[in-house]
Amino acid sequence: MGPIVLYPLYMTSSIGNIFRVHTFGESHGPSVGVVIDGCPPRLSLSRDEIQHDLDRRRPGQSSLVTQRDEPDAVEIMSGLHEGLTLGTPLALVIRNEDHQSGAYDHLKDIYRPSHADYTTQIKYGIRAHEGGGRASARETVGRVAAGAVARKVLSEHSGIEVIAWVKQVHDITTSIDPSDVTLDMVESNDTRCPDPDDSERIRQAIVNARRDGNSLGGVVECVARNVPVGLGDPVFGKLEAELAKAMMSLPASKGFEIGSGFSGASMTGREHNDLFETGPSGEARTTTNNSGGIQGGISNGEDVLLRVAFKPTATIASSQKTIDKEGNAIDLTARGRHDPCVLPRAVPMVEAMACLVICDALLRQAAIDIFPHIP
User: Fold this and answer.
1) What is the phi/psi pair of residue 346, to 5°?
2) Which residues contact 91 (CB under 8 A, 6 or more apart)?
3) What is the Cα–Cα distance from 173 to 151, expressed in whole angstroms?
4) In tens digits, what is the pLDDT along the chain, a chain of 375 residues?
5) Where in 125-252 does DSSP place strands (E)?
6) What is the phi/psi pair of residue 300, to 5°?
7) Which residues, including other chains, have CB under 8 Å from residue 122's CB and lie 6 or more apart?
């Protein structure tokens, strides 16, 4: 008998404390999906509301994204009765219908550059090489489905609105004011950049990258409006820390900013401080929002504004040098269907993660508010 090799027994696939989400499925398995624990009962919810966000994330929706043709039709398996949530686990399943697993046969023993192939193999001793398995962006289908449910909780109970858009692709950056962005503006074109002129430049850049066998990265910006004061905790449960963890768990994410972000490092305290004034209803408001709607880890009633940087898609149609499991040098030219730029489809993913975090924080605060406030 050979040596016994011990591997970790499980892979973490959950997020949240009260509104708890568990995603499942591989890129080329039978299905992907999510189980949601902690959704409040009697929430009005329809399949169409979930499907709307899934359609925005869906592959094959335009010439700028992967041409994998998945309908991503959601099936609600439990937790809903006559249009209302029961408070029991919501199970949402999306079948994989256009997975061409044979296109990945040549990659079974090869480590693709900047993918999770090598690290997953070493960590677990096994991996689903078709499409990247769990490491594929296909896993985010469950997140977006759960995010749509969280969005409904936020909208129905607090009027919170979450909108994201493409702020930058490669060296093209739009300077549109976040307070002006609407969902219609974002969805008016397939780049999901709300500025028409910048959108066309971004479109051409993505087309050129695909023709060149290359890929592009960029930045998604996101705003959450009408967030009440008091969400988040002052130490390890800071609202921005929870948002950062959620955003950095997205495939291809490489950077996170909130409010002034890294630009705040070049400002003075006098420039950066958000001064208080009395709002129209007597509430405290800030004259600027360099804090990004969060101070001391707790929401302050201003818009929560964040940005997520995504790297260029790792799979490109150009020859790259790598190795196989035996250490042999390989010249790899990728085949299959891939996004030349993840940014347009990352928009609903960023929105989903923001909705999940804020919904969980809202429900945690609701538990605190059961008890009377003692000064």
Assistant:
1) -75, -20
2) 33, 34, 35, 36, 76, 77, 78, 79
3) 28
4) 455 555 555 678 999 999 999 999 998 888 999 999 999 999 999 999 999 999 999 876 777 876 667 789 999 999 999 999 999 999 999 999 876 656 677 788 899 999 999 999 998 888 888 777 788 889 999 999 999 999 999 999 899 999 999 999 999 999 999 999 999 999 999 999 999 999 999 999 999 999 999 999 999 999 999 999 999 999 999 999 999 999 999 999 999 999 999 999 999 999 999 999 999 999 999 999 999 999 999 999 999 999 999 999 998 888 899 999 999 999 988 766 678 999 999 999 999 999 999 999 999 999 887 665 544
5) 161-169, 172-173, 218-225
6) -110, 10
7) none
Buried-state track 146-167, b at ≥16 Cβ within 10 A, e below 16: bbbbbbbbbeeebebbbbbbbb
* Whole-number Cα distances in Å, 120 to 102, 112, 123, 135, 253: 21, 12, 5, 9, 18
Residue spans of the domains in the chain: they are: 14-368
Give me the CATH code for the 14-368 domain, please: 3.60.150.10
Token pair in block for residue 319: 């020859």
Global pTM exceeds 0.70: yes
